[in-house]
Design a protein that fits this description.
- InterPro entries: DNase_TatD-rel_CS, Metal_Hydrolase, TatD-like, TatD/YcfH-like.
- This is TatD DNase family protein.
- One of its GO terms (molecular function) is DNA nuclease activity.
- Helices cover 41% and strands 17% of the residues.
- With 255 residues, it is α/β, with parallel strands linked by helices.
- The chain has one domain: Alpha-Beta Barrel (TIM Barrel).
- The protein has an 8-stranded parallel sheet.
- Helix 5 links the parallel strand 5 and strand 6.
- Helix 2 packs parallel to helix 3.
- The protein is globular, with a radius of gyration of 17 Å.
- The relative contact order is 0.16.
């Protein structure tokens, strides 16, 4: 069985004491590649360094909406430079977070738009963080351009209502540990509506640890629990679901 964790944050200090062991456990669970995603400029720089250090890691660089107020011309120039590295496979995670509102909404929208334009300019896929901002996220994406087959809605949480629109736009949709949460029936129903050729798996480590490990630090090995739940919902053998989602990850990230 081959799995790819399409979204993790192994550059976080949560893993400073046992990062190598975390990677070994991932390999033992069948995880052959992990995409490590930046949340700010320093995290993006760390992600690139880790991907250069470990063959099983790739990097995505970008500024999370929580840090949107840091996005300026210098930061964008730095991201552009980082993206020239062969280990960098996308721009993210970028988007809008109107749940926490850690940055003013107008600033989030400006930072999001600038990074979308950067991704277009350098022809890399984008990884979207969108929380309590579905309509605004989709409107801004429409304004900037066509991201057909070049966009991942990470950690999908909006329920089934938006799936049809995302599929119409030819976006990929990634699901994580939330699939296993007792109170996340709407997320499970959403997954059922996603075509197999647009489905991705992730952990968002160290967050959103799946059952039965909930309450502990998340890690890429646990993408197997996400895969098991997804296979059950899609009524497919685990190995087949794993192969399909791995092929999807390789396609969008050009691995």
């Amino acid at each position: 069985m081959r799995l790819i964790d399409t979204h993790a944050h192994l550059d976080f200090e949560d893993y400073d004491s046992d990062r190598f062991e975390v990677l070994k456990r991932a390999a033992a669970a069948g995880v052959e590649k992990i995409v490590n995603v930046g949340a700010d400029l320093a995290g993006s720089q760390r992600s690139v360094k880790l991907a250069q250090q470990y063959n099983e890691l790739y990097a995505v660089v970008g500024i999370h909406p929580h840090a949107a107020d840091t996005v300026n011309s210098d930061v964008l120039a730095n991201l552009t430079q980082l993206a020239e590295q062969s280990v960098v496979k996308g721009i993210g995670e970028i988007g809008l977070d109107f749940y926490y509102d850690n940055s003013p909404r107008e600033i989030q929208q400006v930072a999001f738009k600038k990074q979308l334009q950067l991704a277009q300019k350098i022809d890399l896929p984008v990884i979207i963080h969108s929380r309590e901002a579905a309509e605004e996220t989709l409107a801004l994406l429409s304004e900037v351009g066509d991201f057909k087959e070049k966009l991942i809605f990470h950690c999908y949480s909006y329920g089934p209502d938006y799936i049809e629109e995302l599929i119409k736009r030819d976006y990929y949709i990634a699901f994580g540990g939330m699939l296993t949460f007792k109170n996340a029936e709407s997320v499970r129903q959403a997954l059922k509506k996603v075509p197999l050729n647009r489905l991705l798996l992730e952990t968002d480590s160290p967050y959103l640890t799946p059952v039965p490990y909930r309450g502990q630090r998340n890690e890429p090995a646990y993408v197997k629990q996400v895969a098991e739940q997804a296979a059950q919902l899609k009524e497919l053998p685990l190995a087949e679901l794993a192969d399909l989602t791995t092929a999807n990850a390789k396609r969008i990230y050009k691995l």
